[in-house]
Amino acid sequence: MVLANQKHLFDIPPDVTYLNCSYMSPLSLRVKEAGASGIQKRGAPWELKISDWFDPGEQVRKLVASLIHSDPENIGLIPSVSYGIAVAAKNITLKPHQTIVLLDQQYPSNVYPWRNLSRDSGATLITVTKEHGQSWTEALTANITEATGLVAVPNCHWTDGSLIDLEVISARAKRMGSHLVIDASQSLGAYPLDIRKIRPDFLVSVGYKWLMGSYGLGYLYADDRYCRDGVSIEEGWLNRKGSEDFSRLVDYRDELKSGGRRFDGGEYPDFVRLPMAIAALTQVSEWGVADIQETLAGLTAEIERRAQLAGYEAPRRADRVGHMIGIKIPPDQVAAISRKLADRRVFVSFRGSSMRVAPHLYNDVADIQKLCDLL
């Protein structure tokens, strides 16, 4: 179902055309109000109850789990994608004869830890490029062999929205006996994901892009085997069993909490960020991810059509997600186009060789018209 425009839920000035959700979403009025209430609560620590420390986190786990069709027990609350990828890297063992498969120009947080693991384990790092006319899914599949120990990829390329079919990649990885780690930061909240079909070892995401929450809070999904026996990267008190009883924290315990809680980052019970996350995740759930995707796909299809009429190249709808599109910009035009867009208060990102355009429900066809007129 195509959703009605939701700009009234945001405080976006009339002269601003914000087409950059893949960089950072604006905060809705609802999320800002939740944050303000959280600041008030944090300002009076004598009023805080034990439930204020733990209940919001459990609510967030449930909301995230519902978006990916997971059990809340498998969800960890983390400060960043790099933290979550570090958790995955600590729990995955590779052998010297194996390979690690990544995308060309993949986001750095999902590259650096694997470089380190390659160095420490002796496994060979393979950076996959694609030929003209080839999809990323085809290129990746061709490089996943019996020697592959790990595939670490996103759901779509962060520079232009090109799609990676995770179900196809997962099936190939499982057949070859490979681990699978996914950075879903540029898809979770805007593109339907089903953990039951993808079955990764780990999936991580930031919360400030398509999940529309605050900076500094992200999410981790871990497969059951890691929830039972996985190793955390912190030796904190919050992820230990019995930490809810503050009076007995001096009774040190080695046992970690159940499920994804063992991977929670220190100080995760943020009295401001968690209420904001609850408001944001609830809003995304009310809109419905499938309906968000359908609505945004209509806007990016219009961008694709108009960009091609203006002589620019962009990925076809069949080859990308519906919520993001990268328009190829000649290097000698980037500076001039950037200035012109800034002068007209039109906000996009330039990533790699693409002008990345990422609308959301606060945008409409008039915003697309404004961008394309400038092009």
The tally of structural domains comes to: 2
What share of residues is helical? 25-40%
Order of adjacent strands in the largest pleated sheet:
2-8-7-6-5-3-4
Record field, number of beta strands: 12
User: What is the end-to-end distance?
Assistant: 30 Å
Contiguous low-pLDDT stretches (5 residues minimum) are none
Order of helices and strands: EHHEHEHEHEHEHEEHHHEHEEEH
Notes on the protein architecture:
The chain has 375 residues and is of the alpha/beta class. The protein has two domains: 7-19 and 289-374, Alpha-Beta Complex (Aspartate Aminotransferase, domain 1); 39-286, Aspartate Aminotransferase, domain 2 (3-Layer(aba) Sandwich). Helices cover 38% and strands 14% of the residues. It has helices at residues 29-42, 50-68, 81-91, 112-121, 136-143, 166-175, 195-198, 224-229, 273-287, 289-309, 331-343, 365-374; strands at 17-18, 75-78, 99-103, 124-128, 148-154, 179-183, 202-206, 218-222, 325-328, 346-347, 349-351, 354-357.
Q: Keywords for this structure?
A:
three-stranded antiparallel sheet; seven-stranded mixed sheet; Aspartate Aminotransferase, domain 2; globular; alpha/beta; 375 residues; Aspartate Aminotransferase, domain 1; 2 domains
Short description:
This protein is α/β, with parallel strands linked by helices.
What is the secondary structure topology, with strand pairs?
Layout: E1 17-18, H1 29-42, H2 50-68, E2 75-78, H3 81-91, E3 99-103, H4 112-121, E4 124-128, H5 136-143, E5 148-154, H6 166-175, E6 179-183, H7 195-198, E7 202-206, E8 218-222, H8 224-229, H9 273-287, H10 289-309, E9 325-328, H11 331-343, E10 346-347, E11 349-351, E12 354-357, H12 365-374
Parallel strand pairs: 1-10, 3-4, 3-5, 5-6, 6-7
Antiparallel strand pairs: 2-8, 7-8, 9-12, 11-12
